[in-house]
Specification:
Layout lengths: L2 H9 L22 H16 L18 H12 L9 H8 L2 H12 L16 H8 L4 H4 L18 H13 L6 H7 L4 H13 L20 H7 L18 H12 L6 H7 L4 H12 L14 H12 L18 H12 L6 H7 L5 H13 L4
Helix pairs in contact: 1-2, 1-4, 2-5, 3-5, 6-10, 8-9, 8-10, 10-18, 12-13, 12-14, 15-18, 16-17, 16-18
Length: 380
C-alpha cells in the first residue's frame, strides 16, 4: 500500500469518537467538487476505503454517508498538526493535497449512499450467554457452570472475573504454560472472549469441592500471610485476587507449591511462601478447601442497550454546532469500532470526552458488545 493510501486511512481514523474543538480555516469554507473528489478517491483512497466508502478489510472505517462537517473537522486536526500521531504519512497527505482537494474527496465520500450491512449480525448481546457459549471447551475439565467434581481441577464458578482474565491471558494463552491443553483451548480467543467467559463463571453459584481431606484447623496457623489478601476464610474481595474458599484441595496444594518454588510468577506469593515445608503447605490447602465458598460481590457490566443510549446522546445527533459534531456509528465496521474504543479507553487516542466515557469500560466484552450493536444497525 503506498503512502497516500495509508495516509488517507489514518487521516480519517477519528470516526468512532467525540471530536475536538473546531479549527477555523479555509478548508471548511470551500464548496466540494464531487467529480474531482471522485477522481482523487480513485487515485489515493480506494485502496483502503473503496469507491463505495466501505473499508476493504476489518479495522478500516467506512466513510460512505458520514457527516461531512465531522470529516472536515477531523481532517483539520491533522492539517494543523493538532492531533496526536499527526506525522509521517498522515501529515504528508494533508500537506500534499491542497484544501480544495481535501474538501472534494471528503465531500465525495460524505455524499455516497449509506452502505447495506454485509453480515447477518444480531444487535443483541448478552455477556452471560456469550460466555456460556465460549466456555463449552472448558466443560470437559471444569464441568458446566464451573463446579468440577474431578480432583485437581479448580473451581471457576463464583471466581473473581479479573483474576480469571489475568490468569487465562498471562499464563495459559500468552505465557509459557506447562499445560498445553489450556494453551490450545485459549489460543485464538480475544480479550473480549475471555471477558465474557470470566463474567459467565463469576455469575454462577460456587459449590464446595467434594470430600474431606483432613483437619482444617491445623493449617490456620500457617495461613496468616495468606489472609492478608485472600481474607480470613479465603473469600477475599480484592478483584484480582482469587477466592480460595472451597477450592479443590489437590489443586490448592499443587498451586501453592508452584508459587513457593517460583514455577508460577508472583513476587508477593514467593515472599509469603518462602521457607514453608510441603506438609505445611498441604495443611494450608486443607484449611482453605474446608471453608464454605461465598458468592463474590460482583455485578456484571452495564447492559449494552444502556451503554448505547449513553453513546446516542452525542452520536445520534446531526448538528451544525461545532461543539456537538460526532460521527455516525450505525453500520460502521465492527473491528474498527473495537480498535477505536479500545484506543480511547487506554489513552492511545486523544479526546477528553471519549477518554472519560470509555475509561469506565473495564471489560473488553463491553467494547465488543457496543461495536456489535452499532455495526448491526442499518446505516443512515
Amino acid at each position: 500500500m503506498n503512502k497516500y493510501v495509508a495516509g488517507i486511512s489514518l487521516l480519517l481514523a477519528l470516526l468512532a469518537g467525540c471530536s475536538e474543538k473546531q479549527e477555523s480555516g479555509a478548508l471548511s469554507q470551500l464548496p466540494p467538487d464531487i467529480e474531482a473528489g471522485k477522481t482523487l478517491a480513485q487515485a489515493k483512497c480506494s485502496g483502503c476505503h473503496g469507491m463505495d466508502g466501505r473499508g476493504v478489510k476489518d479495522g478500516i472505517p467506512n466513510l460512505a454517508a458520514q457527516i461531512e462537517s465531522y470529516l472536515l473537522k477531523a481532517i483539520q486536526t491533522y492539517y494543523h498538526g493538532k492531533r496526536a500521531g499527526s506525522s509521517g504519512d498522515a501529515m504528508s497527505i494533508t500537506k500534499e493535497l491542497n484544501p480544495d482537494q481535501l474538501r472534494n474527496v471528503l465531500g465525495y465520500y460524505a455524499g455516497l449512499p449509506p452502505l447495506a450491512n454485509l453480515a447477518n449480525m444480531s444487535a443483541q448481546y448478552s455477556y452471560y450467554d456469550r460466555g456460556e457459549e465460549l466456555s463449552k471447551p472448558c466443560i470437559s475439565c471444569h464441568d458446566a457452570g464451573g463446579n468440577p467434581t474431578t480432583a485437581g481441577m479448580p473451581r471457576l464458578a463464583g471466581q473473581h472475573p479479573q483474576y480469571i482474565i489475568k490468569t487465562a491471558t498471562r499464563i495459559y494463552r500468552d505465557g509459557a504454560s506447562s499445560m498445553p491443553a489450556m494453551h490450545e483451548a485459549l489460543t485464538g480467543l480475544s480479550q473480549a472472549d475471555l471477558s465474557n467467559i470470566a463474567i459467565y463463571f463469576a455469575l454462577n453459584k460456587p459449590q464446595p469441592a467434594p470430600g474431606k481431606a483432613g483437619n482444617p484447623y491445623e493449617g490456620k496457623q500457617f495461613a496468616n500471610d495468606c489472609i492478608k489478601c485472600h481474607g480470613a476464610t479465603g473469600s477475599g474481595d480484592e478483584s484480582g485476587t482469587p477466592s480460595l474458599a472451597g477450592q479443590d484441595v489437590k489443586y490448592l496444594n499443587a498451586m501453592i507449591k508452584a508459587y513457593r518454588d517460583k514455577v508460577r510468577e508472583h513476587d508477593a506469593m514467593h515472599k509469603a511462601l518462602d521457607g514453608l515445608k510441603d506438609r505445611e503447605i498441604e495443611k494450608i490447602a486443607i484449611f482453605f478447601a474446608a471453608e464454605q465458598p461465598a458468592q463474590i460481590a460482583f455485578a456484571p457490566p452495564e447492559p449494552i442497550g444502556d451503554l448505547a443510549q449513553r453513546c446516542d446522546r452525542c452520536h445520534s445527533l446531526v448538528s451544525t454546532n461545532p461543539e456537538m459534531l460526532a460521527p455516525k456509528l450505525n453500520g460502521q465496521n465492527r473491528a474498527y469500532l473495537i480498535k477505536a474504543m479500545t484506543a480511547y479507553r487506554d489513552g492511545d487516542r486523544g479526546s477528553s470526552a471519549m477518554h472519560k466515557i470509555s475509561s469506565g469500560l473495564y471489560f473488553d466484552a463491553s467494547i465488543e458488545g457496543i461495536a456489535t450493536y452499532y455495526s448491526a444497525q442499518a446505516a443512515k
